[in-house]
Amino acid sequence: MKRLINKPVRGLLILTGGLLLASVLTNCHSSESKAEAKEAETADAPVAAAEVFSLKKGKLSSSLHIPGELVAFRDVDIYAKVSGFIKSLNVDVGSEVKQGQLLALAEAPELSAQLSSAESRLKAQEAVSIGSKANYERVLEASKFSGAVSKNDVDLALAKRNADLAQLEAAKSAYREVADLKKYLEIRAPFNGIISARNASTGAYIGPSGKGSEFPLFVLTEQKRLRLVISVPEAYTGYVDQNDEVSFTVKTFPDKKFTGQIKRLSGALDKRLRSERVEVDVINNDKKLLPGMVAEVNLPLPTKTSTFVVPKSAIVNATTGVFVIRVKDHKAEWVPVKKGLEADNKIEIFGQLTEGDSLITTATEEIRDGAPVK
């Protein structure tokens, strides 16, 4: 049975289909027009005119300006080894002393008594040892005659002589121990330097640290040789080597330049500062420099091997990274790079580049990736 469609409905369907067909044809025509317009725009895009240079390798020498601190090469707190009272002081603050020089003399009556007692015991033991040795020699001589002395008596005399000899050695050690302790009453300089602090006076009670002496008797500082301590940031540690020479200035002598040699590198980074401790030996014979001074250090950073060196103007610092623009087949090609040392308007770069590449001297973001270049 055929389904009948009245004429008005049939006309509506025909009209709707025609509108849809017209819309599809219009959209297709619009897409083709946009594609043609884009091609025309690309064809009519202006060709960028740029100066280029040939990429070459070279060595760049730069320098780093960082603060440093001068410290004494040797700086020690001098305490008394044994307890006692200061009998005399031979130096004061600012005194220059030599190694082994007597700084102060202390007295301890109990040590003198102990030394006398040890000496008496030593002399008594010496007498006993001499007697037992003589007795052993007589017994040994008598044993040579048959039946005069038994072998057991000889062995006993030998044992007595050896025991008395061992006691004599013990008495000598005890005497040396007290005598050495008494030597500590003489407080002497461990090395050449200057007395930078004194915390005791004649008659004061002294003793080991924490036992009668809260503060050291003296502070001895070596002033003719200093350490310049600097912290080199992680990025520059690869350029620093032993025996490299550095220069520095201090506020006290702003017009004078001092020099020193790098002698010690810590070999590890500080966990907080992410830097390496480097020590420079500074000869200070005229003693103008003082421990504790802050220095402005000029640290040379020469490159060890040849690297790509370009003008700073060839670098594009975009939001997506750092680039140089290479010209290849008359088109601009953005190449990502990493920066190294900078000096005299030049900079080291590292990236997927080869020697002889043509790079744009003055690179800008206006020269887009893939744009034609003449």
- Unreliable stretches, pLDDT < 50, 5 or more residues? 1-9, 11-45
Fraction of residues in helices? Answer: 25-40%
The gross shape turns out to be elongated
Radius of gyration: 46 Å
What value does the average pLDDT take? 82
Largest sheet: 6 strands, antiparallel
Category by helix and strand content: alpha+beta
Order of helices and strands: HEEEEEEEHHEEEEEEEEEEEEEEE
Describe this structure in words.
This protein has 3 helices and 22 strands. The chain has 374 residues and is α+β, with helices and mostly antiparallel strands. The two termini are 78 Å apart. 18% of the residues are buried.
List the helices and strands and how they pair.
Elements: H1 7-43, E1 52-54, E2 57-58, E3 61-72, E4 75-78, E5 84-89, E6 96-97, E7 102-107, H2 109-142, H3 151-183, E8 186-188, E9 193-198, E10 205-206, E11 218-221, E12 225-233, E13 245-250, E14 253-269, E15 275-283, E16 294-302, E17 307-311, E18 316-318, E19 321-328, E20 331-343, E21 346-351, E22 358-360
Antiparallel strand pairs: 1-22, 2-17, 3-12, 3-16, 4-11, 5-7, 5-10, 6-9, 7-8, 9-11, 12-15, 13-14, 13-16, 14-15, 17-21, 18-19, 19-20, 20-21
Helix pairs in contact: 2-3
Please provide a brief summary of the model.
This protein has three helices and 22 strands.
Name some characteristics of this structure.
alpha+beta; six-stranded antiparallel β-sheet
